[in-house]
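Team,

Forwarding the record for the chain on the shared tracking sheet. I've put the sequence and predicted structure together so nobody has to dig through attachments.
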Amino acid sequence: MINALIRRHWDRAMRPVGRAVAGSGISPDAVTALGVALQVVAAYFIIEGRLGFAGLFSATGALMDVLDGAVARARGLTNKFGALLDSTTDRIADALVFIPIAWLYGVSPDFPRRDQAWVAAVALTALVASFLVSYVKARAEGLGYECNVGFAERAERMILMIVALLFDFVPVAVSLVAVAAVITFVQRLLHVKKQALRVER
């Protein structure tokens, strides 16, 4: 939803930033790698229970995820491998949020209030559902179907999790993300099914 509403305006706003970074000689892949490294740091802070710091590093990592595309366009380096790398690192970044949350709440809580195994289970459910949302789109487009729909795409899910880390309402956020991701997964399946039925007729 957010992607469809603001993507064009956001891309336009990022062009000068992309040109500035590209002028320094930094490659898009280096920006992508920096984004993953920042998410690794965020994961460490989640495990340590320092959620505010985790939110800050996760937000900066998410910004790198947007910036790498702007840098690639500014340098004329857009290609299929870059798109593959971007999608792959998105999945890694997702895992670096939800798996540490599952660890913090289910395996090694830093204090009693976070000793909630159900949060760990929901976090892993959110991760699997998020992966399925992305997989259905990639597979559908590979088969020639359009699949640019969804109640909660990655942007919505990650914004919610970053805000949840910053303001420490992780149990509520992972529950919302899990439900939203499942709904989006079903939406995309049904959307592709309608297209497939039209083709068969």
